[in-house]
Each structure stands twice: as structure tokens, then as C-alpha cells.
Amino acid sequence: MNESPNCVVCTRELWEDELGRYACRPCERRIDDRLAALAGPRGLYARLCLRMEPGSRSMGESVSGSSSPSIPANLQILDLTASGGIVGTLEAWVEDWASQGLATRGTGGRLQHRIDQAIGTLRLNLPRAVERHPAMDEFAREVDGIWRTGSALVDGGREPVKASATCQACGNAFRFGLFDDGADCRSCGQHHTRAMLLQPDASAA
Ligand SMILES: [Zn+2]
Ligand SMILES: [Zn+2]
What we know:
Elements: H1 25-38, H2 44-52, H3 70-81, H4 86-98, H5 111-132, H6 136-155, E1 162-166, E2 173-177, E3 182-184, E4 191-193, H7 194-197
Antiparallel strand pairs: 1-2, 3-4
Helix pairs in contact: 1-5, 1-6, 2-3, 2-6, 4-5, 4-6
Bound molecules: zinc ion (ZN) (2 copies).
């Protein structure tokens, strides 16, 4: 129980009917909204993962001669969507809350499933956690941070970086995503591997 008369998240003085809670009601609602926004097939996490496809397999390769500002953003998305990123942060909180009887540990599985399980149990138990969990400020700050970074990358992120290549079969120019594994010529359908696309003489256009 919170001995202080203030919300640990926004530091506003608690109303009389909020006394003893660690977080005020508006803070609880905001945390819940942000968790909800991250989960599900249309949530921020799923949309971050979509921004990585189909280039995710080629992220390890360096693209020589490119200094696009979108590359750091894509690496940031890769970090966030990997199992040590958002999933790891949320599951660490599930573990922490579960040790206090405030959450149910997940059963593993695909990353999206793990995210949804973690958020499900955190949201379910949030009303009790705001009354009992002293580290609500830290939790709120981390959820806020994930939500803010994720929103900025999804909404403010640029379109995938495009470059031009000249078809090795028909000579017409076509565009391809810099993170794609390969691309087909728009004119004749000739397939070009990533190595072909990145050849200097293939990108004259
Ligand atoms: Zn508050
Ligand atoms: Zn062609």
C-alpha cells in the first residue's frame, strides 16, 4: 500500500478515493491504453514486425555505399521486435508480477503470441497491481517508452528505402526495396537476386 499521498507515476496528489493506490486512475488508464495498443494482430508490435518484412533476413548484410537515414531506424525495429526487445521487457514484468501473485506466466510460442499473452495478463492484473505494486512508476515509464518508440517508428517511419536497378535481361529500369532479398523486373519479369541488384552496373538508372 502506498503510504504517500501522491501518484508514483505523475506525482499528482491522489483523490481521497484513490488513497493507498500507487497510481492514480488516469495513470492506470493510460498504462492500460498503451498496453492495449501494443497487442494483437493490428497492434504496434505486429506493425513493427511488418515494417521489417521481407528484408529481415538480409539485415545482417551491410549495404555498401548507402547512408540512408532509414537504416538505423530499421535496426532499431529489429532490436525492438527480437525476443530480447519488447517481448523480453514485458515478460520480465510478468515474471516480476507473477512472483507477487499478480500475473500468470506465459506458455511460450511465437513472439506475437508471447507479446499477447504477456499483455493479456498484465492488463488483467493492472487494477490490482496499481494498488499493490510499489514499482508502478518504473513499469509505467517502461510501457510509456515502448509505446512512444514504437509509435514513432510505425507512424513517423519512412517508407522502405527504394533504389533503382537496370534489368539484366531487357535493360529497363525498375525499383526495388533496399532490404529485399531479390526483385523481379516490372517489364519482363526477370528475377534478380540481391547480389545482382547490388551490382554497380545493374543500378545505372
Ligand atoms: Zn498519476
Ligand atoms: Zn526486364
